[in-house]
Design a protein that fits this description.
Length: 224
Amino acid sequence: MRQIIARLWYGHNKLVYLLLPFSWLYRLIIALRRYGYKKDIFKSFTASVPVIVVGNITVGGTGKTPLVVALAHFLKQQGYKPGIVSRGYGGQAESYPKFVNANSNPLQVGDEPLLIAKNTHCPVVVDPKRVRAVQTLLYRFACDIVISNDGLQHYALARTIEIAVIDGARRFGNAHCLPAGPLREPITRLRTIDFIVCNGKTQADEYVMNLAAKRFMNVAKPNQ
């Protein structure tokens, strides 16, 4: 099944044209949804500390987790106390929110949050409802900045900085939104992103992690 989807999204398959009407409907829905949050028709939660969202606009892994780990280490070096939230994809906890530590069961919290917890030693909370995850994190821990692993399209959580990670090899496939292509949002969404990190070969309009460092240092300094 994955091979069929890969050929459809990243090849030149004429079956894509049969799915385009559904992609147009999908784009309309996400555009209306984003407009609703922009105009406060739908309410977003604004945390008391800066929130950095690391996500992507395509389906599948692009290398977000290693970037979250690197970012957490960088922020700690700058004197911050970061906390991390995640949806916990792949985990099946009996209840949420769920705290993650080095001894957590990956079947409950997911592989990626466990990897993050082990490699950052930061507080990590998983919950499909990211707003609740952030609220729980800030209630239990003295964090002065939050990193959201994924959640670029989760507009219920307001964010200070958005980082999009791009797969340098596969990039955007056929450039169509779901289900005709791999895009969760149109490529034009990248115009509103603060930083674009390419996992692989970069292009002229893309930024890499070291170019973003100065911006991170200017995010609401913690109290000394």
